[in-house]
Fold this sequence. Notes:
By secondary structure, the chain is α+β, with helices and mostly antiparallel strands. It folds into two domains: 6-200, HIT-like (HIT family, subunit A, 2-Layer Sandwich); 205-362, HIT family, subunit A, CATH 3.30.428.10. The protein has six helices and 15 strands. The strands form two sheets. Strands 1, 2, 5, 6, 8, 9, 10, 11, 12, 13, 14 and 15 form a twelve-stranded mixed sheet that branches. A three-stranded antiparallel sheet has the order 4-3-7, with no helix packed on it. α1 (148-166) packs across α4 (275-294). The two termini are 39 Å apart. The mean pLDDT is 95. It is an enzyme of class 2 (transferase). Residues 41-202 form the Galactose-1-phosphate uridyl transferase N-terminal domain. InterPro entries: GalP_UDPtransf1, GalP_UDPtransf1_His-AS, GalP_Utransf_C, GalP_Utransf_N, HIT-like_sf. Its cofactor is Zn(2+).
Amino acid sequence: MKEPATPWLLADGRELLLFALPGRMPAPVPDRRPLPERGIAQSQLRFDRQTGQWVVIAALRQDRTYLPPAEACPLCPGPSGLTSEIPAPDYDVAVFENRFPSLSGAAGTPFRLPSVNAEPFPSAQGHGRCEVICFSSDHNGSFSKLEVPHARLVVDAWRHRTADLMARPGIANVFCFENRGEEIGVTLTHPHGQIYGYPYLPPRAALMLREARAHADRTGGNLFTDILANEVADGSRIVAQTGKFTAFVPFAARWPVEVHIYPNRFVHNLVDLTDAELDGFAQIYLDVLGRFDLMYPTALPYISALHQYANTDEQREGYFHVELMSVRRSDTKLKFLAGSESAMDAFISDVTPESVAQRLRELG
């Protein structure tokens, strides 16, 4: 049976995985860069008693590569083994441990969060895993421009990493995401995303699960299933729909452009999807991103967030879905998170979700 990816080691011992399209064989070369030795305890978790949330302190990320010129991009292929995080003459999809991780050390070491009642300033090692996923070797490409088989290969890589990280000790949540555009804050323009393995449930995931449990106690149903059914029945915010997936602008959208993609049946994460559903996911994801590209004269900056849940009692109500969002509110204006949003987490939208959905439908 063919292995899903070709493993390789980088000069400082970090793992690299190369995923290939049918008929192609990765050909990595030795990584000959003089990289400094890695330390495991590179970040710290600190507990915020005001909110009941964990905060990651990762000062080493101040040194990460920042908007290098194309000829110095560390995500482009590096056939010499001297210039790139991906020492190979070419690749289709690559995943590697982040050189400047917010969380690290989740190889096989057991980990438990400390009691928050034992001391005034609870803290712990920044346990977890941070990976970079490169969607293509084309520096000037984008996810939206991938052919369907290539997009499906990215989905397969996401799925592979989700299964691996969920099985590691001390990992409570696996989050695949993409930041596109300097307006969002990217530091590398090469088409790529990231994969985080958190040692705790991030605040938004915890909040959604709390609401889902309350909904189940109140109605006996699943919150996400009911949201999807209600959006389909209403119809005014549907962007695209297939036999297996539905994309819609949520009723209470926070962002100027916001689209959620739901599978039409309940699953916890990418691992639960069938082959046919994985194909369908790649197709509708490309469809929505293609509509994003058509909205304005310049590429739409966006964040893509894959919300996944473990098949555990604590997360049993969690329904896999994608949330895409953009800060662009017109062809010349951006939405900045100012006082109400940043200080109070009280979002104020400048557009109606129905008008955004209508425009996106028309762009299909």
